Amino acid sequence: MQIQTNWKTPQNSIKYSDFLQMLNININLPKCPERLIIVEQLENKLVISTPKFSVKWRIEYDFPADITVVKGTLNQSFNGNLLRISYKAHKIGEEIRKREFPVKNAPEKKERAPKQQREEAQEEAAPAQEDPVQKEQRIMTKAEKLLQVSTAPKAPLVVSKERKTNNQVNHKQTRTISNILTEKRVGSEQELLLKIAKKAQKQQQDRESGKVEAIEKKEQFVMQQIEAKQKRRDERESKKKAIVKRIKDKQGK
Questions:
Q1: Final residue in a domain of this structure, among 39, 69, 91
Q2: Locations of Basic residues compositional bias (predicted)?
Q3: At 170, phi and psi to the nearest 5?
Q4: Inter-axis angle of helices 177-252 and 132-151, nearest 10
Q5: How far is residue 143's CA from residue 130's CA, in Å, rounded to a whole number?
Q6: Which of 133, 136, 251, 253 is the most exposed place for a label (fewest CB within 10 A)?
């Protein structure tokens, strides 16, 4: 590895993995824009430099003598601080091994119905940022649908013994850890949405019953006012009649 003295040398590391047959190089270039990083691949070396950046980084890597780097396999990524470079490589005298990882008991991918595809697409296309009102409306709509499904009468399920046995065998074969985790997550979400829907339904019933009570109280108050007004009118009429009677009695004497 050769380093020029008029450049700064960044922190770096180089490592060869014989198991993966991969040569990995990590270089720390803090706060350097990716467009200012120059990666030059020469015959037996790799040169990384930042001539237009405020900090002049430069480093040259001579590939290990016992390693053959496969040309055209350069792969690099940069996260704003760390530059990762990797090559397919193998020891001299060896070849690149082909690795296959067969999936055992992989569940068959079932074709989804168009309605299910549309619903999933709508859920995935939900805005990343929602205001509280939109979020609450979306949750309540989903919860109401779930409540309707959970409260709907279910027809008795009749399954033949042979089909039931086959389904149990297939279920055991295709059940994976990811399926189990997905079922638990979906189950917990459904329970939560069901609780939210029931709570909202109860609040709505309470509000409606509260409105009925308020109307009854108002009607009762109005009736009491009418009765009190009628009572005062009757009392005035009685007083008038009594006064008229006394006047007539005096005139008769």
A1: 91
A2: 241-253
A3: -65, -40
A4: 100
A5: 18
A6: 253
